[in-house]
Design brief:
Elements lengths: L23 E7 L3 H12 L4 E4 L11 E4 L2 E4 L10 H6 L2 H4 L1 E3 L3 E6 L2 E6 L8 H6 L5 H16 L11 H9 L1 H16 L8 H13 L3 E3 L5 H7 L7 E2 L4 E5 L2 E4 L2 E10 L3 H7 L8 E11 L13 E4 L16 E4 H4 L9 E8 L5 H15 L7 E13 L12 E3 L2 E3 L9 H19 L1
Parallel strand pairs: 1-2, 1-12, 2-9, 6-14, 12-19
Antiparallel strand pairs: 3-4, 5-8, 6-7, 10-11, 11-12, 13-16, 13-17, 15-16, 18-19
Length: 440
Amino acid sequence: MTSSAQQLSSHDSSSHDSSSVPSSCDVVVIGAGLAGLATARHLAISGLDVHVIEASDDIGGRVRTDSVDGLLLDRGFQLYNPSYEEGARILDLNLLNVRSFTAGVEVRINGRSHRLADPRHEPTWAVDSLLAPVGSWTSKLKFSRYAAKLALRNPPPDSVDQRTGAFLERTFGKELTSTVLRPFLAGVFLDENLDTSKRFFDVVLRSFVKGRPGLPEGGMQQIPRQLAAQLPAGSIHTNTRVVSLKSGQVVTDNGIVTCRAIVVATDAQVAHTLIPAVVAPESRAVTTWYHLADCDGSELTQGKSTIVVDGQRFSHGSIDSSRPLINTAVLTHAAPEYASDNRVLVSSSAVGIHDSVYSETLVRKHLEALYGVSTAGWTHVTTYPIADALPAMSAPHAITTPAHLGDGVYVAGDYRAVSSINGAFTSARRAAEALLSDLR
């Protein structure tokens, strides 16, 4: 096995054209991530001649999967929620075949595991959820009622935004926040201080209550591949970098394209470079380690596909640096297809970039505490340090931003909505609708 993510590769470019771009078309979409591919799909269905230009060697943007030695390795721990409204419109969920995780979380405190879950999906966990030493039962019930209320209707964004951390502590108490909510949400937002917008928190919590996130059986990159398969052959151009753009023209290192409209669907930093008027939020970084466990899968989380968090990491007001992981999960409990020959594949993540040998040693020690088993014999498969894993959604955050920048240039990306797959799809629809309206 290798410890360098850069040595892994699984892309299949047979349906992509890395040769010279066309001299002209209706629309150029810059970026073949989820937002770019979804935008191109909307426009192609409407009859426009659309070409997608991608600088890297494959599609997917931040949603990529490497295949090596019978393992599926997503670049960073990611899940897909079938409850995403935008995704349901443009994806074949039956074909995606999402393998759901348990609708709950396992919290490790003082060497014991405590399971908390939505009783509708895991009724046998109800007693443990109430008795777990993670806050008063009144705080837990108050949080459950709040989550259930969000599931019933999509509330309008708060008129005045606030930090998620401050809202949680004030509303549900410091103990429940520090032992469960903050550890879990740190992995969702890649924000250990929970400076993230409470408006975004409401969107995320609603999606968790309405659906059970999981893994496509073929890896997360099946999502962009399914979108790409809906586009005309030869309309995606990989290994092609955009040098500059202006109204009606895109200059690439493979040629110049004249067009009626341009959609910039890159990450925020690249979009800002191409169009200085675009404001790029701070990027959240994450490092994900993959290990093959040498024990039977039933010894880890009782064989359940449950995300594990450390209930003591934030318990003293500050972050315990000896406990680097924000979450860990046995992927093969949810999706056995992620490892051949019945092997047990574990994914673990920490906020920030951790690329030293010592970091993996510290992670291995933390995993031993979280799972309650020896990890000395676990095989380190690879490490993915990802600098631009998520755009920050710090409060105050505007969930809706304009898609049309003027002069036939439009912009899409999850940072224009909320930093999630559904946010990327939402921004794509908005960009496509604005463009189509202007061309009519």
